[in-house]
């Protein structure tokens, strides 16, 4: 099975560590490796480096090549410009389909944290087998069993059990819900028929391309032009000319919200998955219990609880009597805010446009 790791986001909610010039997936947020490196490594040894592709923006070419020397250079897919995830997934499918259109392919993301790595690989393998069993026009969503009523994530609703594979239940798919209200999320959690949606799925390139042809024909037309040129000396010219013209649209809006539920299944498992796209989510992913302090670097935290204090400088950071705070110290920015104020970080960063602080974004 082929697997594409997507690594193209900017990650404003993890500012000031994550910047346009060096997004979160390339930074050492968890341990001594970037989340991109961790995302690739957790796929092995079940999946070979020979079968892994990486999709990102061309502006990050040097970063990804430097961090992932084990991946074949021809398996890096570089978008010449940002056109959102809809075109990005389509580009990857068009390229992989040129070689192997009907074999299972997995889609994963580079800015997540998965503690149960063996279980994660097992679930991907079960999804692969289900695609082989049901046929190439199938998609299998992989959900994380909800731990709490999270209103900042997408959710997957699933129906009756379809079958079991070695004790793992596979359900019929119903629909996707993006960022519900807190009241809705609490009902989802109570019902037991919903899972968090990490954005992971297994399908075939031919199936996804057929969905582009049906639901996003303008994008599909461009993808086929790029696919025809792939592997020839015209590829770069065609890619740079055609890709920037593709509609800027999310993958969910372009494709996933339009798929027929009868084509889809859900595996809802406990992967100990977390979206570390925001500081408070990273705190939740790394903590053992909610009241503990999560720290990194030269720090000293006293008489404090439920804080995240990350220091990326040689200067000592001291915190006293802190409660539910985020303290992020980099060489040029010190961020101090409440965990509840994380949504405001993006607005602050956006406000830097056209000011002397714009270079800090």
Summary keywords:
single chain; 361 residues; alpha/beta; Spore Coat Polysaccharide Biosynthesis Protein SpsA, Chain A; five-stranded mixed β-barrel; four-stranded mixed sheet; 17 strands; 30% helix; 27% strand
Describe, in plain words, how this protein is organized in 3D.
- The chain has 361 residues and is α/β, with parallel strands linked by helices.
- The protein has two domains: 274 residues, Spore Coat Polysaccharide Biosynthesis Protein SpsA, Chain A (Alpha-Beta Complex); 74 residues, no CATH class.
- Helices cover 30% and strands 27% of the residues.
- It is built from eleven helices and 17 strands.
- The strands form four sheets. It has a five-stranded mixed beta barrel. Strands 12-14-16-17 form a four-stranded mixed β-sheet, with helices on one face.
- A hairpin with a 4-residue loop joins β16 and β17.
- α3 crosses α6, α3 crosses α7 and α6 crosses α7.
- The longest helix is centred in the middle third of the chain and has 18 residues.
- The protein is globular.
Shape: globular
- How does CATH name the architecture of the largest domain? Alpha-Beta Complex
Q: What is the helix tally?
A: 11
Rounded average pLDDT: 94
The largest pleated sheet is described as: 5 strands, mixed, barrel
Strand content: 25-35%
CATH level-4 homologous superfamily of the largest domain: Spore Coat Polysaccharide Biosynthesis Protein SpsA, Chain A
What is the fold named in CATH at topology level of the largest domain? Spore Coat Polysaccharide Biosynthesis Protein SpsA, Chain A
Query: What is the CATH domain class of the largest domain?
Result: Alpha Beta
Provide the domain count: 2
Spans with pLDDT under 50 lasting ≥5 residues?
Answer: none
């Amino acid at each position: 099975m082929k697997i594409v790791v997507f690594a193209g986001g900017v990650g404003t909610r993890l500012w000031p560590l994550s910047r346009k010039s060096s997004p979160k997936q390339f930074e050492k947020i968890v341990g001594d490796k970037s989340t991109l490196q961790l995302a690739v490594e957790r796929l092995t040894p079940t999946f070979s480096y020979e079968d892994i592709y990486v999709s990102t923006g061309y502006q990050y070419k040097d970063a990804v090549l430097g961090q992932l020397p084990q991946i074949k250079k021809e398996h890096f897919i570089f978008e010449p410009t940002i056109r959102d995830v809809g075109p990005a997934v389509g580009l990857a499918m068009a390229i992989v389909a040129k070689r192997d259109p009907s074999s299972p392919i997995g889609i994963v993301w580079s800015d997540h944290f998965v503690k149960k790595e063996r279980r994660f690989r097992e679930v991907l393998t079960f999804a692969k087998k289900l695609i082989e069993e049901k046929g190439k026009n199938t998609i299998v969503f992989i959900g994380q069993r909800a731990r709490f009523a999270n209103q900042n994530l997408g959710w997957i609703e699933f129906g009756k059990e379809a079958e079991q594979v070695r004790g793992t239940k596979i359900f019929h798919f119903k629909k996707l819900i993006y960022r519900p209200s807190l009241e809705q999320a609490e009902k989802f959690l109570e019902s037991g028929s919903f899972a968090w949606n990490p954005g992971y799925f297994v399908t075939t390139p031919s199936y996804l391309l057929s969905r582009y042809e049906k639901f996003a024909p303008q994008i599909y037309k461009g993808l086929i032009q790029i696919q025809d040129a792939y592997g020839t000396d015209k590829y770069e010219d065609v890619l740079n000319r055609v890709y920037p013209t593709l509609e800027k649209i999310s993958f969910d809006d372009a494709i996933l919200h339009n798929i027929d539920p009868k084509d889809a299944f859900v595996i809802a498992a406990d992967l100990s998955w977390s979206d570390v796209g925001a500081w408070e989510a990273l705190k939740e992913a790394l903590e053992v219990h909610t009241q503990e302090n999560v720290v990194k670097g030269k720090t000293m935290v006293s008489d404090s609880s439920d804080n995240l204090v990350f220091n990326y400088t040689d200067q000592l950071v001291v915190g006293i009597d802190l409660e539910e705070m985020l303290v992020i110290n980099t060489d040029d920015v010190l961020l101090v805010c409440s965990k509840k104020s994380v949504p405001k970080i993006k607005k602050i960063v956006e406000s830097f446009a056209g000011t002397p602080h714009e270079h800090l974004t």
